[in-house]
Amino acid sequence: MDIAALVTWVITALGGFYMLGTWLARGGARGGNSHLPVPVVFGHFALAAIGLVVWIAYLVADTDALAWIAFVLLVPVALLGFVMLARWIPVYRARAAAGAQGGGAAQDGPAERNFPVAVVLAHGLLAVVTVVLVLLSALGVGGN
Predict the structure, then answer these.
(1) Is the pTM of this model over 0.85?
(2) What is the pLDDT of residues 116-127, one digit of tens each?
(3) Of 32, 37, 60, 102, whose CB neighbour count within 10 A is largest?
(4) Cα 78 from chain centroid (whole Å)
(5) Helical ranges in the chain per DSSP H
């Protein structure tokens, strides 16, 4: 279960890197070009990256405290992710409505308008799986 958590965490991170790169390339970090607050985006990224490093340290050291620290770090990561999802949904709906009316190129509007729905959904689903696997590992369910 420990390695499964690592695999899902890394795949989740890849999707997150893709969205972060898209967001930055479309000017998301510049004022007024995003509905996602810069501190939320980078806080989500930083805590997730730190948590992943702690998880790898747990895998190497097999110290239960590190598993719990990684899980505790995932709690604000998940909360920040839900904040960003809640702010992205209206942007997606506006893009879908503009597309249905035949107007508004994908480049127009907030930077996060360019996130592929499949990547957002896969990132969120894998994030939930990762949190569950990390919690189960920290609890000692399924052995090491």
Answers:
(1) yes
(2) 999 999 999 999
(3) 37
(4) 8
(5) 2-25, 38-61, 64-100, 117-139
